């Protein structure tokens, strides 16, 4: 048996590379994306009444994690990257069918002419992710407060100290106060979720680069102190 599915839309995310993306949705409310609906699914009536829902389920393709072979066990970053567990006991992108499932906040729905765009918050999605389906999140059925969560019982993340170099601050001054607050919050949340793969932590590497919107961001870390050393725009519209 084989099934073929067409994406109904494509994600344009603040995350331009995998490094630094939170490991689940909802962890970083400031992480925003636009989902642009593709033809023939860009029909206003297909979205009628969706605004009554604050959150949506997205099923999507882990398009940057497609492998010819699958492995029955994976090493979740949550367990330090050393311990193997069954792929079906994880939410790893590397699975027999590379399909992901995320709950995201519906911030806005924009329908104009033939364009349908959904503004989403709390995403854990790479830029360019193809979306297969959208369904409303229904708390009375989907929220299970006393559910058990195996090796991931509590959210990751911790308090950190974050500062910006003079160069980074002066680059940020070129943007609106609102954009700066959002970007700083986003960077704080990303770093407090500790995006470093455990093998680099063991190697004591402390200088990293990541792309966020269209900024290239270089940061250094020592214990729980993080410094944004360089922040440079890669295009004329770094928040696009
Ligand atoms: N919430 C989803 C789920 O449970 O199916 C995704 C969880 S998965 C652990 C999240 C990670 O997938 C992110 O940290 C990022 O590294 C990776 N990721 C996100 N979008 C991707 C894509 N389109 N292709 C490959 N990897 C992706």
From TrEMBL:
Q: Domain (TsaA-like): give its ranges.
A: 5-146
A GO BP entry is: methylation
Positions in coiled-coil regions? none
Keywords of this entry: Methyltransferase, S-adenosyl-L-methionine, Transferase
One Pfam annotation reads: TrmO_C
- InterPro entries for this protein: TrmO-like_N (IPR023370), TrmO_C (IPR041369), UPF0066_cons_site (IPR023368), YaeB-like (IPR040372), YaeB-like_sf (IPR036413), YaeB_N_sf (IPR036414)
Spell out the Gene3D superfamilies in the cross-references.
Answer: YaeB-like
Q: Which GO terms describe its molecular function?
A: tRNA (L-threonylcarbamoyladenosine(37)-C2) methyltransferase activity
Q: Which NCBIfam families match?
A: tRNA_TsaA
What PANTHER family has UniProt attached to this entry? TRNA (ADENINE(37)-N6)-METHYLTRANSFERASE (PTHR12818:SF0)
The record's family statement is: Belongs to the tRNA methyltransferase O family.
Q: What is this protein called?
A: tRNA-Thr(GGU) m(6)t(6)A37 methyltransferase TsaA
Q: Which organism is it from?
A: Candidatus Thiodiazotropha endoloripes
């Amino acid at each position: 048996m084989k099934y073929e599915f067409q994406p109904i839309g494509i994600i344009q995310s603040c995350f331009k590379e995998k490094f630094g993306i939170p490991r689940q949705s909802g962890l970083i409310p400031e992480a925003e994306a636009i989902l642009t609906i593709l033809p023939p699914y860009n029909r206003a009536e297909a979205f009628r009444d969706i605004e009554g829902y604050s959150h949506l389920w997205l099923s999507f393709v882990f398009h940057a994690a497609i492998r010819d072979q699958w492995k029955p066990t994976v090493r979740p970053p949550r367990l330090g990257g050393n311990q193997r567990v069954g792929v079906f006991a994880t939410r790893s992108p590397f699975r027999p069918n590379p399909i992901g499932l995320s709950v995201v906040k519906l911030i806005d729905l924009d329908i104009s002419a033939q364009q349908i765009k959904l503004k989403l918050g709390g995403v854990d999605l790479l830029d360019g992710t193809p979306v297969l389906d959208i369904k409303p999140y229904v708390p009375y059925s989907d929220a299970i407060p006393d559910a058990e969560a195996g090796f991931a019982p509590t959210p990751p993340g911790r308090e950190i100290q974050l500062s910006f170099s003079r160069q980074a601050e002066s680059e940020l001054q070129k943007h609106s106060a609102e954009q700066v607050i959002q970007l700083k919050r986003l960077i704080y949340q990303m770093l407090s979720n500790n995006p470093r793969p455990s093998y680099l932590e063991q190697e004591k590497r402390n200088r990293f680069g990541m792309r966020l919107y269209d900024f290239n961001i270089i940061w250094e870390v020592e214990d729980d102190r993080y410094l944004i050393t360089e922040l440079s725009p890669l295009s004329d519209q770094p928040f696009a």
